[in-house]
Amino acid sequence: MPDREAAQDQALGAAEELFYSRGIQAVGMDAVRNASGLSLKRLYQLFPSKEALVLQFLNRRDRQWRQALAHYVDSHTTPDEQVIAVFEWLHTWFSEPDYRGCAFINSFGELGGISPEVAAQARRHKQAFRDYLVALVTATGRPATLGDQLVLLAEGAITTAAITGSPQPATQARDAARLLMLAYSRHNRAHSDVSQ
Amino acid sequence: MPDREAAQDQALGAAEELFYSRGIQAVGMDAVRNASGLSLKRLYQLFPSKEALVLQFLNRRDRQWRQALAHYVDSHTTPDEQVIAVFEWLHTWFSEPDYRGCAFINSFGELGGISPEVAAQARRHKQAFRDYLVALVTATGRPATLGDQLVLLAEGAITTAAITGSPQPATQARDAARLLMLAYSRHNRAHSDVSQ
DNA sequence: CGCAGGAGAGAACGCTCGTTCTCACCTTGC
DNA sequence: GCAAGGTGAGAACGAGCGTTCTCTCCTGCG
């Protein structure tokens, strides 16, 4: 049984590339077999079913995505810069040549209606991102409300960049984020009243 | 040949409900047959293939969605109110019991990687929404830049509401939109400088 | 009244998918 | 050296898909 962990990683790597670029249902286990170099038998002793492979793919993707984001944000020092860094990182992500949106939004759209596990995984991922961004925002002394608004800008940029094929939404979202941060800055806070 | 148009509408109505709630690939032509009450033979003489049915479904959905939005917006008078009305309408949409996000984002995630036609249809729909919102924004005397930012808020609200299952993102997006409109109002315009 | 033609219901076909099985082969411990 | 068990390659299987075909029935017109 040579290196179960390495084989799993190889399978998940191949599955990620295929699932992300073509969608999940359009990719058969034969394609994963060919791309990973593993035999079907080995694949099925590493993952009991395709659904298990899909869930582990989402799990791995969640870990890697959040880690890459946090790594970039950590390279910035002030809290305000760290919030803006999120949108800068989005821009580099959108610029990847085979960028095709958020794997969790895509999976939710494709399977969320028929697979509660996939829907739950998407929910967890988005919740984790929201918690992370809200923490960055509250570290600047601003309210969580702003964090939720910035989440919407980021999510909107993710799907708009995917469909238009341009990284520009990241810049637009960053500019809007700057304006909202200004609106919520200590100096302006007393004057802000957006209630009807 | 009794009423080809009515039969098409019946088929498209059934297809819409199934495709939207369960995804496209998960719905077979048999399911469309059962839901529409049409025979398979009739279905195939109305639409030459499943792909044609899918594209017409997206076409119809685009028309109906934009018409419903425009109808709600038109019931408001001032340009500023009309912009905000977009987010109010989103809230009522998100509150529908079987809301499951934007059919075009979902279709793009599921089939955009393997069907250029589906990807193009999603692009067209989002472009039309963007043009509409930008027109509403410029009618208030504010720049198109703001329109693009509000598009991101709306798109983010659409997916966040779908995944979390709550209509609350519409309210958060509306509040953020109000703040951005304030930031871009004539009074503040000279002082806004968000460049790095 | 008879018959041609189209419609409905669903069986059938070819294909692909997820999953399992076969079988020859290779390793490995005694 | 050899039995035993695990492996790889791919065939096989059952189910489900999109699509087409069959067959029966109904309809409407001469």
From TrEMBL, chains A, B:
<keyword id="KW-0804">Transcription</keyword>
<dbReference type="InterPro" id="IPR009057">
    <property type="entry name" value="Homeodomain-like_sf"/>
</dbReference>
<dbReference type="InterPro" id="IPR001647">
    <property type="entry name" value="HTH_TetR"/>
</dbReference>
<keyword id="KW-0805">Transcription regulation</keyword>
<keyword id="KW-0238">DNA-binding</keyword>
<protein>
    <submittedName>
        <fullName>TetR family transcriptional regulator</fullName>
    </submittedName>
</protein>
<dbReference type="InterPro" id="IPR036271">
    <property type="entry name" value="Tet_transcr_reg_TetR-rel_C_sf"/>
</dbReference>
<feature type="DNA-binding region" description="H-T-H motif">
    <location>
        <begin position="28"/>
        <end position="47"/>
    </location>
</feature>
<dbReference type="Pfam" id="PF00440">
    <property type="entry name" value="TetR_N"/>
</dbReference>
<feature type="domain" description="HTH tetR-type">
    <location>
        <begin position="5"/>
        <end position="65"/>
    </location>
</feature>
